[in-house]
């Protein structure tokens, strides 16, 4: 092989060396592993620039770029313009600021982003170096070596959302742009979409179940004085279960039962005799609660009067009448001269979610102590004043959470559960 | 790089001494890569310039060393324009100098790092961890402390076989380019 040929090949090898360094890794998008703890991230703009760009045009360009991440992906994140700022420096001030710098730089734009010890992003700042680069904001108006600001902002905002550079040539998060006057970065590559949707998975939309069908209440044949049977039609196919609520006045309800999917009846025992109760039912799943069913009511039967005492024997000393035998609470109430109606404590829990947290809202009634103990899955969480409501805030995690509330230091408790 | 290499050893088949020669297959592949580097690489419009060829990095750096990061400490650093950022200061233990004065160690500042419970990341910036070994491209030292030349391009990490991680490029190849660029 001739020396000159060798030299040429060495030269090419040198160039190829550089190219290979950058083309060997084609794994695609890269995430910093850090994300915002909110689905809506505010940013502020300092539109002062040295290139004579109209400030409104700059703000509009930034808004358009922000919309790219929202409109072209299913990611549960958005960047929202929140107003202007005078800020023009990088630093941790928990305010996401975008500004221009009239300094020389090898880079058209740069983003600094911060996260705290929990791994959550807390701040980002983006600078555009108009001391080195010319920018324009209207496609088709590029003259000479200029950078379409929208294009660059989309890329930098990707960093602001926690994305690193992609190794896919042509992706918006690729570290370089194809050429001056390019306007293609406003269309995200599939790699960009995959990255942002992995970082911020789309919120799972679960359809709320339909309301249960007509509800009815009737006296239990086996315990007509203390039990009522509530039945309804299963009006949905996606419920996690049903909750039954009861009232003694038709307006103030509290939960008395939580049942599994496909349940269509519930026997409410331990009731007072000769009392009218009102019931309503709703279905629930992780998407929320269905509308209520209608309200049904029924009355427990009265306890029949005791059999008359047998006629006294003609003995000179008549025997006293036998004392009544108390066989159940309702019997006792019926026989007591001034019955004290004690309602069993009830507990209801409803779940709700934000982008990063979930909450279990507990409501209870019927507890008599000044404070109650609150348990989760058998483990005591808290003691709290008995004001009927308490909220458990926690990180998002799917599962069933079994809560128990008790009169403090007693075993008088009620339980309820919620599934996320 | 000396010794016997089989036909399949990428990217070069070295026949003798310092004269590299490629197989036809490898030559074709490198031609394509070279075409990318010379013709199709992005122009200077993005956050980073086009991927910079190694010979340009060598040419434009003040110092190029083969080194291992032995000490990595983060500190707050104010900037002239009001910036208040975290900077990671790295002590490089130099085992070979490809360009610049021979020094057994050098200091390098890299924007970003973790301090007091918060972490700063800078787009496209180099991240150095203790124990990282590779070829470092350094800008001129200011007060005895270098900055990275070309952000993330400032480090070609080497594996134990002296191959640039993720590639088939070897340290000897870089040495050869460095020697020719002198």
Helices, strands, pairings?
The complex is a heterodimer of chains A (420) and B (182).
Chain A: H1 3-23, E1 35-36, E2 40-45, H2 55-71, E3 78-84, E4 97-101, E5 109-115, E6 120-129, E7 134-136, E8 146-148, H3 149-160, H4 190-199, E9 216-219, E10 228-231, E11 241-247, E12 254-260, E13 265-268, E14 276-285, E15 288-289, E16 296-299, H5 329-335, E17 346-353, E18 357-365, E19 371-376, E20 379-385, E21 389-395, E22 400-407, E23 413-419
Chain B: E1 13-16, E2 19-21, H1 24-40, H2 54-60, E3 63-78, E4 84-99, E5 105-111, E6 113-115, E7 118-122, E8 133-138, E9 145-147, E10 155-157, H3 171-181
Parallel strand pairs in B: 5-9
Antiparallel strand pairs in B: 1-2, 3-4, 3-8, 4-5, 6-7, 8-10
Helix pairs in contact in B: 2-3
Question: What does this molecule look like?
Answer:
- The complex is a heterodimer of chains A (about 425) and B (about 180).
- The N terminus of chain A is likely disordered.
- The longest helix of chain A is centred in the N-terminal third of the chain and has 21 residues.
- In chain A, about 15% of the residues lie in helices and about 35% in strands.
- In chain A, helix 2 packs across helix 3.
- The radius of gyration of chain A is 35 Å and the shape is elongated.
- The termini of chain A are far apart.
- By secondary structure, chain A is α+β, with helices and mostly antiparallel strands.
- In chain A, strand 5 and strand 6 form a beta hairpin.
- Chain A has five helices and 23 strands.
- In chain B, the strands form three sheets. Chain B has a six-stranded mixed sheet, with helices on one face. Chain B has a two-stranded antiparallel ribbon with strand order 1-2.
- The longest helix of chain B is centred in the N-terminal third of the chain and has 17 residues.
- Chain B has three helices and ten strands.
- Chain B has about 180 residues and is an alpha+beta fold.
- The interface between A and B is large, with 56 and 59 residues.
């Amino acid at each position: 092989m001739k020396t000159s040929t060798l030299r040429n090949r060495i030269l090419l090898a040198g160039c190829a060396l550089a190219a290979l360094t950058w083309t060997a890794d084609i794994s695609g998008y890269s995430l910093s592993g850090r994300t915002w703890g909110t689905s809506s991230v505010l940013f502020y703009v300092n539109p002062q620039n040295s290139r004579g760009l109209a400030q409104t045009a700059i703000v509009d360009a930034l808004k358009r770029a922000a919309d790219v991440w929202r409109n072209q992906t299913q990611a549960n994140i958005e960047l929202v313009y929140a107003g202007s700022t005078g800020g023009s420096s990088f630093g941790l001030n928990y305010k996401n600021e975008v500004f221009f710098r009239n300094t020389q730089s090898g880079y058209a734009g740069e983003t600094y982003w911060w996260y705290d010890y929990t791994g959550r992003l807390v701040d980002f700042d983006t600078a555009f170096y108009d001391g080195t680069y010319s920018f324009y904001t209207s496609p088709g108006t590029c003259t000479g070596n200029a950078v379409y600001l929208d294009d660059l902002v989309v890329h930098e905002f990707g960093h602001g959302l926690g994305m690193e550079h992609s190794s896919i040539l042509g992706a918006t998060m690729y570290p370089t742009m194809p050429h001056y006057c390019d306007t293609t970065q406003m269309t995200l590559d599939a790699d960009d979409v995959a990255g942002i949707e992995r970082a911020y998975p789309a919120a799972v939309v679960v359809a709320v179940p339909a309301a249960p069908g007509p509800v009815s209440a009737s006296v239990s044949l086996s315990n007509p004085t203390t039990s009522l049977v509530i039945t309804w039609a299963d009006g949905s196919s996606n419920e996690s279960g049903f909750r039954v609520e009861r009232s003694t006045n038709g307006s103030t309800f509290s939960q008395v039962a939580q049942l599994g999917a496909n349940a269509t009846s519930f026997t409410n025992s331990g009731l007072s005799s000769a009392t009218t109760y009102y019931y309503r039912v709703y279905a629930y799943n992780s998407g929320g609660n269905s509308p209520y069913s209608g309200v049904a009511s029924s009355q427990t039967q009265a306890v029949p009067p005791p059999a008359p005492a047998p006629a006294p024997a003609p003995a000179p000393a008549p025997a006293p009448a036998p004392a009544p035998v108390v066989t159940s609470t309702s019997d006792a109430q019926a026989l007591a001269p001034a019955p004290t109606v004690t309602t069993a404590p009830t507990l209801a829990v409803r779940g709700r979610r934000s982008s990063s947290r979930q909450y279990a809202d507990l409501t209870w009634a019927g507890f008599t102590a000044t404070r109650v103990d609150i348990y989760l899955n058998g483990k005591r969480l808290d003691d709290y004043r008995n004001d009927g409501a308490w909220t458990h805030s926690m990180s998002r995690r799917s599962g069933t959470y079994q809560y128990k509330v008790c009169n403090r230091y007693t075993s008088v408790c009620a339980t309820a559960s919620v599934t996320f | 790089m000396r010794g016997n290499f089989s036909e399949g050893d990428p990217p070069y088949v070295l026949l003798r001494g310092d004269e590299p020669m490629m197989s036809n297959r490898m030559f074709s592949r490198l031609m394509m890569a070279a075409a990318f580097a010379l013709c199709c690489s992005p122009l200077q419009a993005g956050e980073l310039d086009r991927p910079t060829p190694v010979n340009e990095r060598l040419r434009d750096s003040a110092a190029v060393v083969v080194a291992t990061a032995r000490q990595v400490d983060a500190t707050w650093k104010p900037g002239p324009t009001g910036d208040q950022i975290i900077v990671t200061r790295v002590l490089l233990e130099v085992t070979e100098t490809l360009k610049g004065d021979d020094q057994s160690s050098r200091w390098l500042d890299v924007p970003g790092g973790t301090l007091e419970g918060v972490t700063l990341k800078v787009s496209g910036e180099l991240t150095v961890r203790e124990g990282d070994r590779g070829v470092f491209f350094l800008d001129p030292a200011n007060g005895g402390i270098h900055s990275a030349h070309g952000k993330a391009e400032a480090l070609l990490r080497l594996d134990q076989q002296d191959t640039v991680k993720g590639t088939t490029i070897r340290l000897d190849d870089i040495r050869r380019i460095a020697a020719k660029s002198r």
